[in-house]
Amino acid sequence: MLYLTSDDFPIFVPFGVIGFYRYLWYLIRLAAAATYRPVPLPENPTYIASEDVTIIVPTIDAGEEFKEAANSWLVGKPKEILIITEEKMLGPLQDLANQVDPERIRVLTVPFANKRLQMSHGIKNTTTDIIVFADDDAIWPPTLLPYVLACFEDQKVGGVGTSQRVQAVGNRMTVWEVLAAFRLTIRNIEIASSTHIDGGIPCLSGRTAAYRTVILKDPEFLHGFTHDYWLGKYQLNSGDDKFLTRWMVSHGWTTYVQCCKEAELLSTMKPNWRFLKQVLRWTRNTWRSDLRSLFMERYIWTAHPYVAYTMCDKLINPLTLLVGPCLVSYLIYKSTIPIEKGGYHLPWWNILLSYFVWLTATRTLKLMPHLWNNPGHIIYVPAFILFGYYFAIMKLYALFTLHETGWGTRAGIGDASAATAALDAQEKNAMEKQQHDNNPYQQQRPAYGGGATDSSSPFRDESPSPSPSPYRDFPSPNPGATARSGQKPPGQQRRRGGEDEGVEMQVGYAR
């Protein structure tokens, strides 16, 4: 390819600059990821999983994978696991819960299959200091919970994420699963580097992420979370992890990601072409969230400038990636023209072969962290190259279809607006009932009171109700004063024995 510069050198200057820029920043990411260090375990931890952690798992169906995942969660000894599902799946999921651990797993239901509604219902039924959201196929190492909780020793940290790896659905990975594994390897490098550089992250992945309960119990958060609209009229169901990450940034909380083997979960991906529908949904969520972060909310610019840069880079990435094929196509065209008429001296096959060798070499180097442990996957590098160009086109398509908010890979996901209407009706009934119960005149003279009837809630809890939540007074979203004093935020302080005050059937929403 360098030999082509003898024909028309100025053509290659801008493209050389683009290539130099992209690989320079990739080397910076590698260097930052290499120097990143996870938060170590404290000698005297403030948070203990058996007292402080509730795991919330929104799902609409589950199989044997759920039992394997649930058993891995229980190794960390959380206080409770809440499975939130729709009413028609209560029986099957209750049976699965009973097979695993009926004492520590409760199954709650909502009337509609809506992930955000399910998550908010789980939040309202939580009484511990820390909430961990998990996909129903996320398999944890035994050390994950202690390493996640270690990050909350810093009272400014509001959310904590983990690194991830793909687990094959069958005996061996399909090409789709390998492509997903390549993407996760690159993502692990990106989140480790951004955490190390400026402490931020574009997204705390919903496959497993932990948050302070006091943040999520805030009525303002719960309302915004279940009434999230794109352009004011398209209600969002997916993209919950993006919303949570933006909320941390906009309300003054910091985040951290534990990128280490001790906190690296395993997750399954679609082993067939439906993986592309997953990627399309994720891409739309990324567009919507990043555009909001950069141009509407704008907190990211001052809180995490490096993350803001990576978001801008992703916005232009489809264009810079497609420049290469366009240039090569132009060169091939010029090579078919005689030299005396302004054509190029190299034959078209030489240009095409040179381009393919360059792509293969650079992409192989980029995937080396994955290939080092899985050398047999090198045969999938050409597929990854083709997927990269497909993904660039998909990103442009996603940009022009942001109004499409469906789940994409799941049949039976309820309409978001209908689910929100049910939530609003339930909250209204609860408020009217409370007002009625608190009015002594209505209690003594119901004939004149005309008070609200005691309508049964559509949100069923099939197991004994938890003790009343201690989260009554919500702190300021900015944790500055609390963090500086070294105390837990209000609603999180407690004493421990006089010591210091102070976790097809492809299942659920993972796909």
UniProtKB/TrEMBL annotation:
GO terms for cellular component: membrane. InterPro entries: Glycosyltrans_GT2/GT47, Nucleotide-diphossugar_trans. This is Glycosyltransferase family 2 protein. One of its GO terms (molecular function) is glycosyltransferase activity. The keyword Cell inner membrane does not apply. It comes from the Eukaryota. It is found in: Membrane. Residues 428-511 are annotated as: Disordered. The chain crosses the membrane at residues 315-333, 377-400. It comes from Agrocybe pediades. Keywords: Glycoprotein, Glycosyltransferase, Membrane, Transferase, Transmembrane, Transmembrane helix.
